[in-house]
Write a structure and sequence with these properties.
By secondary structure, this protein is an alpha/beta fold. The chain is built from 10 helices and 14 strands. Strand 5, helix 6 and strand 6 (149-153) form a beta-alpha-beta unit.
Length: 306
């Protein structure tokens, strides 16, 4: 997937662009429904599927109270969008000047003049432009005037539950990973960069990769059976989120994963951790030996679900 971050790079260069607009935080089942329709329609007319998304999140720029953590970072979001067969992602820098641009101006200057939209598909509830005046109906009216087709995609429900980023975020932070996975259409995962830690795992005989997450919603403290994706290869692993209470408790929670049978040095590399099942809560052990014994039990339990 081609990624464009500068509007100056856009000048009607795509063949029959089929476009969608949105944040697509988490790229959940509802988002996938839209993205797959865009990719399918572009393929049918031998056109180009284009996603227009924003970074940072509009709520963050507009200083809205209680701005929640993103389900996934921009990098992670783009990877997931690419997996749905999208050809091009246009990442617009969301700023206060952009927020003040009215919806009609956004349609004319970006969708029509820059992208040359052939057709557009958006979620039926999606709003854009100053004071959220842009919607499906406005796009349809502009489409009649400027010669493009617009339609809305209805919201998706799973077992009578509306699929939304807000709902999924609450499930993840509340530890309900199975329910969250059902709405995501994939395993709950976190993308992060491997950083240097205190190397206590190595001393215990279980070296770990310490992860600095890319500002993503994180499950509660505990020990988890996980898969680790590193350089497009998948490995089994045991992950701990918490404060390392057996040693000098950390002031901030840490994320560290032991990758089974993995010996390469990966400092500075990005890895994705996919949560499979929580094995137990984090706890303080009286001795290092008791902790090692428990880790062996965790390893055995993890092997039964991975």
């Amino acid at each position: 997937m081609r990624i464009i971050t500068n509007l100056r790079q856009l000048h009607r260069q795509f063949r029959k662009p089929v476009v969608t607009i949105g944040i697509f935080d988490g790229v959940h089942l509802g988002h996938k429904k839209i993205l797959r329709q865009v990719a399918k329609e572009a393929k049918c007319i031998r056109g180009t599927s284009v996603v227009v998304t924003f970074d940072p999140h509009p709520m963050e720029v507009l200083d809205m109270i209680g701005t929640p953590p993103l389900l996934v970072s921009l990098r992670h979001r783009l990877d997931l969008i690419a997996n749905e067969g999208i050809d091009v992602a246009c990442v617009l820098n969301f700023s206060k000047p952009l927020a003040k641009r009215n919806a009609g101006e956004f349609i004319k200057k970006i969708l029509i003049r820059k992208i040359g939209v052939h057709s557009i598909v958006i979620g039926s509830d999606f709003k854009f432009g100053k004071n959220q005046k842009g919607d499906v109906e406005l796009l349809k009216s502009f489409g009649k005037k400027f010669g493009f087709y617009a339609k809305g995609v209805s919201l998706l429900k799973v077992r009578k539950t509306l699929v939304s980023s807000t709902r999924i975020r609450k499930l993840i932070t509340g530890g309900k990973l199975k329910e969250a996975s059902g709405l995501l259409g994939r395993g709950v995962s976190v993308l992060g960069t491997v950083i240097k830690g205190l190397k206590r795992g190595r001393i215990l005989g279980y070296p770990t990769a310490n992860i600095d997450p890319h500002h993503e919603a994180i499950p509660p403290s505990g020990v988890y059976a996980v898969y680790v994706v590193c350089e497009r290869k998948r490995y089994k692993g045991i992950l701990n989120i918490g404060f390392r209470p057996t040693f000098d408790a950390a002031a901030e929670p840490t994320i560290e994963v032991h990758i089974v049978g993995f010996k390469s040095r990966i400092y500075g590399k990005d890895i994705e951790v996919i949560f499979v099942r929580k094995l137990r809560n984090e706890k303080k052990f009286p001795t290092k030996e008791r902790l090692i014994k428990q880790i062996k039990i965790d390893e055995a339990n993890a092997s039964m679900v991975l």
